[in-house]
Amino acid sequence: MKFDLDTFNEILTTITRNKTRSLLTAFGVFWGIFMLVTLMGGGNGFKGLMSSTFEGFAQNSAFIWPQKTGEAYKGFRKGRWWSLDQADIERVRKIEGVGVVTCQQSRWGETIVYQDKKSSDAVVKGLYPDYTHIEEQKVKYGRFINDIDILEKRKVCFIGKKISEDLFGKDINPCGKFVKAGSIYYQVIGVSGDTGGNIQINGSADETISIPFTTYAAAYNIGDDIGLMCFTMKPGYKVTERQPYIESVIKQHHMIHPDDNQAISMLNAEAMFSMVDGLFRSINILVWMIGLGTLISGVIGVSNIMMVTVKERTTEIGIRRAIGATPRTIMEQILTESMVLTLIAGMAGISFSVFLLQMMDMGMESSGNPANFQVSFGMAVGAALMVMALGVTAGIAPAYRAMAIKPIEAIRDE
Known about the structure:
This protein is α+β, with helices and mostly antiparallel strands and 414 residues long. It has helices at residues 5-16, 19-53, 86-93, 147-152, 161-168, 213-220, 239-253, 269-312, 314-322, 327-366, 377-403, 407-413, and strands at residues 61-66, 98-114, 117-127, 139-142, 156-159, 178-181, 184-192, 208-212, 228-233, 264-268.
């Protein structure tokens, strides 16, 4: 297909011959590609916002805690309270497919004191070092709890960002100093950084003081009670598939009726993440359906207008044929005009969409909720190529009609 300056001038003259019609025709393509790219970028931004909510949280995890029994069993009455214990951790750990198993205990509403400053409504948590496999502990200063702290029952603590700022001020490393929680002094060994995610298990990490689980058990005399059990699954295993067996193992050792659905509460984080992934897939399908539908309707409009244009240029095309233009030349001319018109409209739609997405991205960043309302360069190039292909497709029918025009028909039409 020959494309030089004369050809470009001829195409430009043809397109601008009827400016209103060309503008309205191009707007259909412009709006279609604009909708497609904007919806794709908006979907990416929404996914980014949702992903930031789950940041640092194990997606293959689950949590178990005890409730009152709902069935009488083996001499035990209905409505009996029971507790998870340390032995349950080992029982669940031996189950096929289960990965990390750990636990958590919490005390709410504690006041943390350093000299004359205090931080109210803090949460004191007893944790093991492997809890980081469940919820990532971002460290700004110092370190998190380790195995030696557990073994020696050290009175040390890892404090949240807000507590650190309340007691010591911003950008000050408090490691080595002692804070008082209740009636017990703990040495600060670390401070959490920006947590990022919004999922909270027994309170926000920014307002938490974490101590070794063994220290917690001794300080608050809880014995073997573990409060909340947390576990992850190994690759290839799903929580939903192993959940009935895990519950049956726990029920068997705590004399709970096998059909009691009230005694054990389980939060399946894996199912929650799967639901969110399914939502994103559905959104992507909906975006493509809406965007492509709008774009195709615009391209059909281009094809119809090109058919009208060919009819109006019957005499011109006939004269071209009479002076030696081949059918292929005529066909290439019409296809080129269709492609140029759709490409110009498409690139305008892509450019305006990218500009709008950039403004949205900047607005979210300024509000403190960064997102990725953008499309990748490859996606933009792919959209441009798709517009070109649709432009050629839109010109096929008009081109064949133009190619079929004979000089004698043009004379009769005149």
